[in-house]
Specification:
Blueprint (H helix, E strand, L loop, with lengths): L2 E11 L13 E8 L2 E7 L9 E9 L2 E8 L3
Parallel strand pairs: 3-5
Antiparallel strand pairs: 1-2, 1-4, 2-3, 4-5
Length: about 70
């Protein structure tokens, strides 16, 4: 189940991610605000601007389940 989130800040990491199936040419992370607090998460797609609204979607990468920020479609 996904939950709403709003980007507080984000950055691009110009190196391989620790997950072989994600971000091998660099990846974005975001700090997002949710009803449960502020969290650092991986981003699906390009680096979002502060204030971008979206959802945290549980995603399996390797053997781990992580929450991935997915921006709402404009």
């Amino acid at each position: 189940m996904s939950k709403p989130a709003t980007v507080w800040s984000s950055t691009f990491v110009p190196s391989k991610s620790p997950f072989p199936e994600y971000g091998q040419n660099g990846y974005s992370v975001a700090w997002v605000d949710t009803d449960d607090g502020r969290f650092q998460v991986l981003v699906d797609g390009t680096r979002p601007a502060p204030g971008t609204k979206g959802r945290l979607v549980p995603t399996t990468l390797g053997e781990e389940t992580v929450e991935l920020f997915v921006a709402d479609q404009s």
